[in-house]
Amino acid sequence: MPHFTVVPVKDQAQASYDSLEGINWVDYRDTGQDFPDHQDTVSSDGHGNHKEDSPFLSSADAAGKKNDFYDRNLALFEEELDIRPKVSSLLSRLVSYTNITQGAKEHEEEESAQASRRKTPKSPNMGTLMGVYLPCLQNIFGVILFLRLTWIVGMAGIMQSLLIVLMCCSCTMLTAISMSAIATNGVVPAGGAYFMISRSLGPEFGGAVGLCFYLGTTFASAMYILGAIEIFLVNMIPKHSSAAIFHATDPHGSDSAMLNNMRVYGTICLSLMAVVVFVGVKYVNKLASLFLACVIISIVSIYAGALKSMTHPPEFPICMLGNRTLVRDRFDVCSKTTVTGNITGPSQLWDRFCLPGNMSSTQCDDYFMQNNVTEIQGIPGLSSGIIRDNMWGAYQQKGEILEKPGLQSVDGHSAMENFGMYVSADIATSFTLLVGIFFPSATGIMAGSNRSGDLRDAQKSIPVGTILAITTTSLVYFSSVVLFGACIEGVVLRDKFGDAVRKNLVVGTLSWPSPWVIVIGSFFSTVGAGLQSLTGAPRLLQAIAKDNIIPFLRVFGHGKTNGEPTWALLLTGLIAELGILIASLDMVAPILSMFFLMCYLFVNLACAVQTLLRTPNWRPRFKYYHWALSFLGMSMCLALMFISSWYYAIVAMGIAGMIYKYIEYQGYLFSTQPQLLVLLKLDEDLHVKYPRLLTFASQLKAGKGLTIVGTVIQGNFLDSYGEMQAAEQAIKNMMEIERVKGFCQVVVASKVRDGVVHLIQSCGLGGMKHNTVVMGWPYGWRQSEDPRAWKTFINTVRCTTAAHLALMVPKNVSFYPSNHERFTDGNIDVWWIVHDGGMLMLLPFLLKQHKVWRKCKMRIFTVAQMDDNSIQMKKDLATFLYQLRIEAEVEVVEMHDSDISAYTYERTLMMEQRSQMLRQMRLSSAERQREAQLVKDRHSLVRMGSLYSDEEEEVVEAPPEKVQMTWTRERCEAERRNRNNAPENFRELMSLKPDQSNVRRMHTAVKLNEVIVNRSHDARLVLLNMPGPPRNTDGDENYMEFLEVLTEGLERVLLVRGGGREVITIYS
């Protein structure tokens, strides 16, 4: 946790201050939620000062506070406070942010317009248990556990079944660790897993993951519906009842009849569920607890039945003919003959294999006559030792009859018409097929993330709840595999539809007190899971469509007036119908496995890539996360995809890859990494004047991202081509020495400022455009009579602001460390006065990635004014830094309002006197030059402009030529008058009174400098908000003086000016 101290800075006098006229103070606290991709708009005031409608600015607030005034201690930042918030107001707004759910709850409230008006949004109050753990349990436990896990154990054996469970659960556990890293990488926004991933990893990964997740959830609804219909048709109603629409005309047609029944009933069920979701989603959410109770009761009954079977195993006899398993509901007695009174007659079983009414063996099936009919116990019990027989797999081909290896059997010819009497495999099985069928029972790990808006502390609840849920379900699966193998006979385990136990659900035969507990519980749980999938999938598609990252999906962002995703629900129903028409649960499960595996693969890949690239916005707080775990999870997802179905895997990867590339093609780039344009100055020998600028750039970039190094040569391109090549080579050599990876750009221009503007506008291409400008400080500007250097500097500041680029100005750059130095201790101090998009927070984080700065600690100083609550600022800043995942010591410095000191007044007066004096000197110099030119060339009047025009200032002054002048009487008198006026000019200079706005700005610079030097005099580096240049260009020279005063007495200073957009957020 960050450490905090509040340091008051007291003044000798406290007094009221007159209202500052013409200055409006803006409160930013009431603005709405903003996102990093907010598009700024710009207006100009005519002086090159562009005002941005930033995410923080509320014009309504500004209009309502016309009579307020700025803090006197921040007068230097008046222009900034027009468009950017003061730190205290920003913090109060960010900390008061509550991520109210944007999911089904608000749709419930919109069901009635009057009810929604009465309801006020509730603050998130769900904990880990109710908000994450139980929803994840409900979504992970599903149809596969009840309908297919016993069959998987029978086919694969206990050992291979445990391996299948281990592979699938390990994959989801590793993905959950990556999800936990995402959840702790900033504030979790409301809107579920898609919002969490896309806001943290960017739209490319977010869109690909979101659509894979959507398709997986949609096919999951189809799988749940098919499971519910299978339970209904096979286990809940008699086979020959009127519920079955299609009936088999021969023994081989039973499978196709069953599939057709599934299609019809599945379509009806899907239609009913879609209507329920459309008109009453609130009932689905309210019934969720009931469905979860059904799941838990069913699982508890399985454990209870397994324990009871140790002493009292349930009676489920299995009728065997030789070693073949018979379909039990086709006859009454498991015997070839029956005894009625003293008369022995043929049984129903005899009649099935022989001609009715004839006891002659010649009329019977050969295999039937040569083998005995026996009964074995279907559920031998936990203490029977049957676990040895079920330890290893017994995979079968389609149509192969289920046989018990231990029973005696005589091979004989069996007529094809009697094939329907035996229990046989309906599909060919293999280890890879079973992996694809089982994996859906491990999915559902994102259910907790979907309720992110309802959680009190999503960053804590999502990791803990999800990992606990996966641990619980994994233990249940492992124990269930062992219990099924230890309690149930092998032929019963391999009997998918319970034909050998009179159409009972196989897992139901083990349950206590009755098989109906499992049948009813599993039916309602699968129906509930299907409803929830149909509820969640359309909202997920609507969220993707509203983000507008895939334009052709835009129509699905619309819905009813209450926000219900009507069009998205329609598309979801159509896609789910495709799964229903497949009709086989065993064929739908691998399809949805592919989409979920693809989704998890993208999550793991994105986390691993973000870590390896050291992306600035990737700072997860989850302490058990490591990129190797994400890489292992990605590898397992890829392996499971190709293990379960290589052709499905290729199709799914192709779909996801196309989605990713399409979003990337649309140009939705997401990067907070500074792409630098470094503006260098060359000396007379075309050598880099300040090579430490390149050193600083290399330390900031740490070998990653784009760096463009540019310089301007003044002159004519044709004449200076050779110089340009020499300069380019000199810069490339210096870039190699300083290990700066990037490009070099040399521009020849008649004026330096025009060349700089060309570099700012035209460097880079497409996505490889700079977003940050680095330039040196114009040293010696005070001593030089030539104003071009600092005018070019200020013009560059204005140009970067207009172009929405960030700006960094390292002052005293010669004192910056080389790449071979190491700071073993010390601090990087950040003086955060005005929020400008987070550049001040981002830069120390980037510098600390480099070995030079790695061991430095970060300190953040923020200034509290008279109207700020410094205690509240401390709490707000604690929360803000926690959300930013930044470790730093924070000091809140109180700057009390005070009178303007005599020193400030005198400093301002000296500044203005110096400016006036230099202006007069330049004026007299220009007049002398004009007289010489007039005598030399009578026609030069056409070229004369304003005495202070940029054109004249940018012209290189040629050495004055000796001009022969003729002195007339008038000329002598004019010269004498000028000399007589000199004392008057001096007296006017001495009587000059400073401008009040300059006094206020100087007051800010002096006061802030006192505080900064007092607290940061021993810091390794001081980062400071750079005030913007004045709107009126007449005050440019004063602006330079203010910056000098602000940074006096500091060894290394980095002046930072943001580009007007967020580069570091609480979401990522």
Automatic annotation (TrEMBL):
Biased composition (Basic and acidic residues): 31-40
Catalyzed reactions per annotation: K(+)(in) + chloride(in) = K(+)(out) + chloride(out)
Domain Amino acid permease/ SLC12A: 132-305, 408-667
Keyword Zinc in record: no
Gene Ontology MF term list: potassium:chloride symporter activity
One of the GO biological process terms: chemical synaptic transmission
Keywords associated with the record: Cell membrane, Chloride, Glycoprotein, Ion transport, Membrane, Phosphoprotein, Potassium, Potassium transport, Symport, Transmembrane, Transmembrane helix, Transport
Pfam families: AA_permease, SLC12
Lineage top rank: taxon: Eukaryota
UniProt entry tagged with the keyword Transport: yes
Region feature (Disordered): 31-60, 102-123
Family to which this protein belongs: Belongs to the SLC12A transporter family. K/Cl co-transporter subfamily.
Name of this chain's protein: Solute carrier family 12 member 4
Organism: Sparus aurata (Gilthead sea bream)
Lineage start: Eukaryota, Metazoa, Chordata, Craniata, Vertebrata
